[in-house]
Amino acid sequence: MARPDKAAAVAEIADHFRDSNAAVLTEYRGLTVAQLKELRRALGATTDYAVVKNTLTKVAAREAGVTGLDEAALKGPSAIAFIKGDPVEAAKGLRDFAKANPLLVIKGGVMEGKTLTPAEIAKLADLESREVLLAKAAGAMKASLANAAALFQAPLAKAVRTVDALSAKKSADA
């Protein structure tokens, strides 16, 4: 009777891995149900935070083609944040919650097939959001276009000032 349940759980976890942009593995030992609910709310609608069994997670990761979840990361009580949206926002949510609740430990993760260490997840959390980075890029492009326009207008403006100066000098000499 337990086999179909375990097979369904493995299939569900494997689907989460396939549908996610990234996954962050955490240890939640000592957190209350209310704190876990608060964490789920902090992560937002695009991130699913699920408590998982380590052995089933190993099997599901293998089925989904996810590599990098090692034996050390899958020890103790584990939960995975399956990130379907912006990984930076989810990493910030996890980092901020871990600062407020030191019992949450970030053990590692996977993003786009690459294994992430806790330090790399912290660096990811330090990045600005996608919208801010796009706005900065647009601002830089606009500034460079304005500089180019000013550069192209400079010789013409200089020629006009030179002609004005010559005509002023000629009228002063006359």
UniProtKB/TrEMBL annotation:
Listed CDD domains: Ribosomal_L10
Q: Which Pfam families match?
A: Ribosomal_L10 (PF00466)
Q: Which InterPro entries match?
A: Ribosomal_uL10, Ribosomal_uL10-like_sf, Ribosomal_uL10_bac, Ribosomal_uL10_bac_type, Ribosomal_uL10_CS_bac
Q: Keyword Signal, does the record have it?
A: no
For the keyword S-adenosyl-L-methionine, the answer is no
Listed under GO cellular component are: ribosome
Which residue ranges run through the membrane? none
- Keyword terms of this UniProt record: Ribonucleoprotein, Ribosomal protein, RNA-binding, rRNA-binding
* Assembly and binders: Part of the ribosomal stalk of the 50S ribosomal subunit. The N-terminus interacts with L11 and the large rRNA to form the base of the stalk. The C-terminus forms an elongated spine to which L12 dimers bind in a sequential fashion forming a multimeric L10(L12)X complex.
Annotated function:
Forms part of the ribosomal stalk, playing a central role in the interaction of the ribosome with GTP-bound translation factors.
Similarity annotation? Belongs to the universal ribosomal protein uL10 family.
Query: What NCBIfam families is this protein classified in?
Result: PRK00099.1-1
Report what the protein is called.
Large ribosomal subunit protein uL10
Its source organism is Catenulispora pinistramenti
